[in-house]
Amino acid sequence: MPELPEVEALALDLRGRLAGRAITKVHVAAFSALKTYDPPLSAIEGALVDGVHRHGKFLDIEASGLHLVLHLARAGWVRWKDEVPALPPKPSNKSPLAVRIVLDEVDGVTGGLDITEAGTKKSLAVYLVRDPLDVPRVATLGPDPLADDFTRERLAAILADAGRKQLKGVLRAQGTIAGIGNAYSDEILHAARMSPYKPADSLSTDELTTLYDAVRTTLGDAVARSAGLAATELKAEKKSNLAVHGRTGMPCPVCGDTVREVSFADSSLQYCPTCQTGGKPLADRRMSRLLK
Predict the structure, then answer these.
(1) CATH classification of 4-139, choosing from 3.20.190.10, 3.30.1380.10, 3.30.70.1050, 3.10.50.30?
(2) How far is it, in rounded angstroms, from Cα 287 to Cα 31?
């Protein structure tokens, strides 16, 4: 799933590609992805792109006062096309293509963007709105963890309000902190040497500072590594720099212990017992049931 660093890099890449270009046509191949009807999608056709922005994990293409807002969900992606086919795409359950954005010609070539979603579980969402805050999940986003106003004191207030909720869930809650998903919450907690199950309101003063620094450094470093990369390179860059997420059974790069996993219905978390839980494996009830 694209998270804050990948969406930030996508926004930077598209900002350079789309600046001053006109959107001539938008083709919808998967109508389930389109979540709005007013204004109609045709309203953005002919509009000039003014900028590309990020709101948490949402990508926002601004054009002539309208905002085409994308949430790529778990398996969505944006693919640049140097040249798009002349014929519009046909709706198909077998194709990953959801939406195609066709741009004006440059040097006789019509470029564009394909918004795709792999797999059978379709969660990609596309909105055309007059204000990004018209998208309900954008309007309720928490603070951006890389913004100047995301201070140590603000994190302290967030954790205090969360009470006994587990750190992993607090970091992932988009209404609490925007942009951190399953992968980077694992990475942040590993960098902070904290259990994902640690209660949010149990941190000491020093632990709060450690967690704050881990949030800013983990995300900031990922953004810096991704800056300037093309969209086709971002997934590999992310995967190659993960310490624990997606590395179950592999050695921890810090201590060499085996990275372990806790499985849930539709996701999992990874952690290092030595670095994060005092050497004790966390209970994995789903795996325990399978072994009985």
Answers:
(1) 3.20.190.10
(2) 38
pTM of the full structure: 0.92
Per-position b or e across 159-198, b if 16+ CB within 10 A of its CB: beebeeeebbebbbbbebbbbbbbbbbbbbbbbbbbbbbb
Non-local CB neighbours of 155 within 8 Å, separated by 6+ positions = 208, 211, 212, 215
Q: How many CB atoms lie within 10 A of CB 212?
A: 21
pLDDT in tens, 41-67: 999 999 999 999 999 999 999 999 999
Q: pLDDT category, 285, cuts 50, 70, 90?
A: low
Check pLDDT > 60 for residue 143. Answer: yes
Asked whether 153 and 163 are in contact (CB, 8 A), the reply is no
Q: Give the full edge-to-edge strand order of the sheet including 125-129.
A: 49-55, 58-63, 66-71, 125-129
Place of tokens 């999608």: 41
pLDDT value for 292 = 34
Q: How far is residue 269's CA from residue 290's CA, in Å, rounded to a whole number?
A: 18
Is the bond leading into 199 cis (omega within 30 degrees of zero)? no
> pLDDT tens digits for 195-229?
999 999 999 999 999 999 999 999 999 999 998 88
CATH number of 152-291: 1.10.8.50
Closest-CA residue to 143 (of 170, 176, 169): 176
Identical fold between 4-139 and 152-291: no
The full set of domain ranges for the chain reads: 4-139, 152-291
